[in-house]
Amino acid sequence: MSNLYDFQAETIKGERRSLEDFKGKVVVVVNTASQCGLTPQYEGLQELYETYKDQGLEIIGFPSNQFNGQEPGTNDEVESFCKVNYGVSFPLFAKTDVRGEDAHPLFGYLTEAAPYSGFPNDPAGERMNAFLSSSKPDWMTDNSIKWNFTKFLVDREGNVVERFEPSVVPASMKASIEKLL
């Protein structure tokens, strides 16, 4: 696949949607979870969306239950949780595998286009690195998604520009987003 627009995915309502629908937009693709220590990032993602959507930003969330079972609910429960607790109005897709043999092909493309280059050298990144290095050392050896709230920034042509690891808060992405808008 050559860019984001080559993929389709199931929305949280169960409808097939072409990601070509986001053509011409700057897109943040993020895998999410409702019962994770990083779940409050929904608030920051929603703030980014509200700040920049009129300039062409889209955020698309892919809930995943692959990281310690932190997204156990149904798609309806996930959608309700996000709206009630964080006011999420950006598009959400159906629960999706984002790593491993059953990963949605979109995430294979994203991780190949923006390989893992380590966690940020800050306290949150160091904690995440220590946790995964001890609990899931085999996950640290490839470019796969490491945990919930890995974020990929995609330009208006559908090309992956940057990868932000889970410990990076959404507000830290502003400068990178603004460059593309």
Automatic annotation (TrEMBL):
InterPro entries: Glutathione_peroxidase, GPX_AS, GPX_CS, Thioredoxin-like_sf, Thioredoxin_domain
Domain of life: Bacteria
Family the UniProt entry places it in: Belongs to the glutathione peroxidase family.
Organism this protein belongs to: Paenibacillus methanolicus
Assigned keywords, A-Z: Oxidoreductase, Peroxidase
Name assigned to this protein: Glutathione peroxidase
Single GO molecular function: peroxidase activity
Phylogenetic placement of the source organism: Bacteria, Bacillati, Bacillota, Bacilli, Bacillales
Catalytic center residues: C36
Domain annotation Thioredoxin: ranges: 1-181
GO biological process entries: cellular response to oxidative stress
